Structure formats: C-alpha cells, structure tokens
Amino acid sequence: MTVKIKFGTDGWRGRMAENYTFDSVRRCAQGFAQYLLDGGKGGQWVVVGHDKRFQSEYFAAAVAEVLAANGLKVYLTDGPTPTPVISYAVVDKKAAGAVNVTASHNPPVDNGFKVRDEHGGAIAPDGLKAIEARIPDEVDAVKRLPLAEAESQGLVVRFDAAPAYIEHIKTLVDLEPIKEAGLKVMVDPMWGNGAGWFPRLLGGGKTEIIEIHNVRNPIFPEMKRPEPIRPNVDAGLRATVEHGADILLINDGDADRVGFGDENGTFIDQLRAYGLLAYYLLEVRGQRGPIVKTLSTTTMLNKLGKIYDVPVYETGVGFKYVAPKMLEVDALIGGEESGGYAFRGNVPERDGILAGLYMLDFMVRTGKKPTELLEELFEKVGGAHYYKRIDTPFQGDKQEKIDRILAANPKTIGGLKVTELVTIDGYQFRLEDGGWLLIRFSGTEPIIRVYCETMHADKVDAILADGLKIAGIR
User: Fold this and answer.
1) DSSP letters of 126-155?
2) In this structure, are 202 and 186 located in the same domain?
3) CA distances for 243 relative to 175, 194, 285, 368, angstroms
C-alpha cells in the first residue's frame, strides 16, 4: 500500500523501514523537484546534505539521483553536515534550495526529509503544501539517474560546506577573544553533526574544549533522543561538574538547536536561553531590530522589546512561520521554545553553532558566568521566569481532543485568572500574571504538548496539572 506523505513543521519525518523507505524518500524528492521546476528553477543548483543517522548518506544519494534526473544540479555534501552549514551553503552557492536528510531531534528509529528555500530558511506553509501536492503516489512516477552517471555528467558535485560557513561565522563573532579567554567549555553534540565543530572553531588557544558523545552512534546512547532538553542532557550536565567546566553547550542531532548548562551543572531551559541571547544582542552588542518569537516561548522577550524599544512579533510554532517573518521585518533575532534561534546577518534558520558562540562571547565580554548572566537578565525583566513542558503520546481522534479543550472554558488555571485564549497555533490560555499555559499537538509526531511559563515558581505544577485535565490526559 502506498504511504501517504504529509509534511509537518520542516518537511517530513517517518519511521525507518516502516514508512520512511528509499521509495518514499525518492517520491519526496520528485515532489520537491517538481515544485522547483514549476517555480521556474530548472537547471539550477540544489544543496543536499545529511546527518549521522542510520543510512542517511544513502538516502541523501537517492535524493541527489532524483533531482539530477529532473534536470536540476546538485551540490552533495561529502559527509554529515550541520543543518545551519547546509543552509548557509544555499546562500553561498546561490542555490535554489536544499534537501537535508535528517530527523533532527527525533528518536533513533526515525529519519526525515527537510526542505529549504533559496534563502536557506524554512519554506512557508503554503510552499510545503505545494511540495506535498506534487509528491507522486507511486514510485514508478519518479525519475532517477544513477549517482555515478550523474556525477560523471557534472550534475552531482560533492563538496565540503564547512570552509565557507567558517569564514562567514568569523564576520559575525570575533573568535580570538573566546579562544584566549581560558574558559573550560563542555560540549555535548549528542552523537550528531555538531561533533568537532567547537574544537575546530575555538581550538589552539587558552580555552579548553571537552567533547562527549562525539562519534557516530545512531542509537544515541545515554539519551532517549538527541534533543537538548532533560533528561537527554543529564550526562552532559554531570560531565560539566566532573570537569569543573564553566558552561555546557549541547547541540541536537543536526546541530540547528542548542541547549545550555551553567557552571553548576544546572540546565538553563530554552526560554531562559532565548532571553539571554536577545539580551546579549540588545545590551552587550548594542544592536537593535525586531524580535520574532513563537507563542510558545518566553514573555521576557516582550519585556525586553519594551525596554529597548524594539517591536516583538509572535508567530505559530515552527521555523516555517519564524523564517518568513524574520525576512519580512529584518529581525534581529528569531526563535522558538525548542531551542532553535536564528540571527540577523546569518541565514533565517536555526543555528546551534552560532548560538553557542554568541553565549561564549557574552561570557567573555562581561566576564560573568552563566548564573550571573541569568541574574542580570532577571533583574532587567522584573524577576525570574519559570517554564516546564510535558509531552504525552496520544491515540484516537485528534478532533475529539480539540473539542474537549475548546469546551473546557476554564476561568482559572493553577489558581490564576485566565485573561485570554489565543489560537494562533494550539490553545494558549494567557494568565493574569503575564504567564501562560499552552496545549498543542506536535507537527512531527503523535504527541500532545502541555507547557507553561509563569513568575510563580510554586504554581508551575498546578498550572500543568490543570492543563493536562483540560487536554483530557489526566
């Protein structure tokens, strides 16, 4: 039976050997090729890369064969390459777009098919629908040119995307002061594409870079999945304490996301991380420009927007919403709750490597450790903000759950008055203290997410408990 392919936040992800097969990947590639051809981009270049998951390099080769057979030319990465590096290669090579074979932070049994536009950023929802509509139902409708033949004809060219990206990064952050700062930096690339990048960028000076989980291992030992949140980051947090490191940098499997641990081995959640990065650009670097945030991330950004007199734009969840908005308003920074942050001057795409460098630069320029930087941020925005998320697999009718959420109409959540219901993406109940509860369905997995932010540390669990009840989970 033909697998029906439906694109989510970034493209398509599936379970290997179940619905994610060579035939289904080739069908996706045919749909993307037709999308480019219909957009008048026949004969142009497309960048194709991959991560370190099982068989990823072979899936990427299959994509290249299909694109070449459709009259497109392919720059095929010569090894596993971080997503932000692939995205920058699109701009550097003036390509029409990119395909990245990766399931990012998903469990080890999954793989994926990410697509990027000519800016190196996520394709907007209408574009994703257009690609999806062009995916043939049967593999017999797929064009294919054997890789060796495509290479001999110059239609597929293997290349190293790293050098151009590194030169670009040097225009955004001065690496030398970080190299000579004498920091001890723990890095956890989560067995993924980020391995070796911080030593390569920052090695040779007084700063010491220590990596763990830096070889290829597609089963991702010591973590449920290569996603930079707890409990997946716990091994890195322990290593930070054991080595007496000043900070922990964590990249997900394809290195477009980042997580941080402080000098005490305490995880800095994604909302606080976003607040720190925005504060760094506004206060320390003195830059100005709009902030783009998904509704699932921190209200600290709204407060920083008022303090520094910059506009804040709120979007649905996912870079398919963030990237187009960043381009539209020439944003200073854009980001989401999952630990993905993008920056002006770079491509409108999450970059876990650049975000990590910016955090180190923040420390070097201020002479402060992560805990001190957080204290400074909280003082600026009026106090500490607390965040927590619960992910729960679900079965059954999604619409029934949606109807239940809408029918709940709670007056209070966690003892706080509900002031507004926002349905940009999911169901966000805004609360009287400026905090919020959000219930939404994952765009890539059969998971319902319940998350909140509040300035009341003692109300986090109560807010989430009410959220689970509203969602019909407990």
Assistant:
1) HHHHHHHHTS-SSGGG-----HHHHHHTTS
2) yes
3) 23, 20, 30, 19
Rg from Cα positions in the chain: 22
The reply to whether 139 and 18 lie within a common domain is: yes
Contact indicator for 190, 228 with CB cutoff of 8 Å: yes
| Contact partners, residue 68, CB within 8 Å, separation at least 6 | 74, 145, 150, 153, 155, 156
Q: 204, 192, 189, 196: which is closest to 236 by C-alpha?
A: 189
3-state secondary structure of 311: coil
Is the residue at 420 inside a domain?
Answer: yes
Inter-axis angle of helices 162-170 and 83-92, nearest 10: 90
Q: Residue 183 in 3-state DSSP?
A: coil
Residue 343 and residue 197 share a domain: yes
* Nearest partner of 312 among 302, 326, 303, 322, judged by Cα: 302
Q: Would you tell me how many other CB atoms lie within 10 Å of the CB of residue 360?
A: 25
pLDDT at position 1 is: 56
Compute the average pLDDT of residues 316-320.
88
State pLDDT tens for residues 331-377: 999 999 989 999 999 999 999 999 999 999 999 999 999 999 999 99
Residues 16/22, Cβ–Cβ less than 8 Å:
no
Provide the residue range defining the domain that includes 239. 172-381
Angle, alpha carbons 120-122-123 (nearest 5°): 110
**Are residues 331 and 222 part of one domain?**
yes
Q: Are residues 375 and 459 in the same domain?
A: no
Average pLDDT, the chain: 96
Residues 16 and 146 in one domain: yes
Distant-in-sequence, close-in-space partners of 306: CB < 8 Å, separation ≥ 6: none
Q: 110 pairs with which residues across the strands?
A: 15
Which residue, 136, 164, 192, sits at the end of a domain?
A: 164
**23 contacts: CB under 8 Å, gap ≥ 6:** 139
Identify the helix (H) or strand (E) that includes residue 429.
strand 427-431
- Same domain assignment for residues 395 and 370: no
Assess if residue 73 is contained within a domain: yes
| Residue 190 DSSP class | T
Round to whole Å and give the CA distance between 38 and 312.
35
Q: At what angle do helices 270-279 and 370-381 cross, to 10 degrees?
A: 80
Q: Are residues 117 and 176 in the same domain?
A: no
Q: Which of 164, 181, 199 is the last residue of a domain?
A: 164
